[in-house]
């Protein structure tokens, strides 16, 4: 099994209910499926609005999987477990 580090970036705008929920859900999924194999960066667009352009962020919260490629995005509070696993392509890992 490939043990490469996953690089994830979560774009939020302040401490809204959706942003806090998205971060909590993401941490839960990462611990469940990527324990010890991920780096998570949280970008608050209220503090760093210029960072939205690089990943073409159109809605928030948005999760971007930078590595492994290809880049994948999941928009929303990440409460739909199935959608997040499919969106990040984590299902393949669970087969191992």
How would you sum up this structure, described in words?
This protein has 4 helices and 4 strands. It has a single domain, classed as Glutaredoxin (3-Layer(aba) Sandwich). It has a 4-stranded mixed beta sheet, covered by helices on one side. The protein is globular. It has helices spanning 17-33, 51-54, 81-88, 91-94, and strands at 6-12, 38-44, 62-67, 72-75. It has 96 residues and is α+β, with helices and mostly antiparallel strands. The longest helix has 17 residues, at 17-33.
Number of helices: 4
Summarize the main sheet: 4 strands, mixed
- How many domains, as an integer? 1
Reading off the top of the CATH hierarchy, the class is best stated as Alpha Beta
- Derived from helix and strand composition plus strand pairing, the structural class reads alpha+beta
Mean pLDDT: 90
Q: From N to C, what is the helix and strand string?
A: EHEHEEHH
Helix content: 25-40%
Runs with pLDDT <50, length 5+? Answer: none
Query: Per DSSP, what share of the residues sits in E-state strands of 2 or more residues?
Result: 25-35%
Total strands: the figure is: 4
Please tell me how large the radius of gyration is: 13 Å
What form results from the Cα inertia axes?
A: globular
Gross CATH architecture:
3-Layer(aba) Sandwich
Across the major sheet, the strand order is: 2-1-3-4
Q: What distance lies between the first and last C-alpha atoms, to the nearest angstrom?
A: 7 Å
Q: Write the CATH fold name.
A: Glutaredoxin
CATH superfamily: Glutaredoxin
């Amino acid at each position: 099994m490939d043990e490469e580090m996953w690089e994830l970036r979560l774009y939020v705008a302040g401490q809204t209910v959706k942003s806090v929920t998205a971060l909590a859900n993401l941490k839960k999924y990462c611990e469940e499926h990527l324990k010890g194999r991920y780096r998570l960066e949280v970008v608050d667009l209220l503090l760093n609005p210029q960072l939205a352009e690089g990943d073409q962020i159109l809605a928030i919260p948005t999760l971007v999987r930078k590595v492994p490629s290809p880049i994948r995005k999941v928009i929303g509070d990440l409460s739909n477990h199935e959608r997040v696993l499919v969106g990040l392509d984590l299902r393949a890992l669970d087969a191992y």
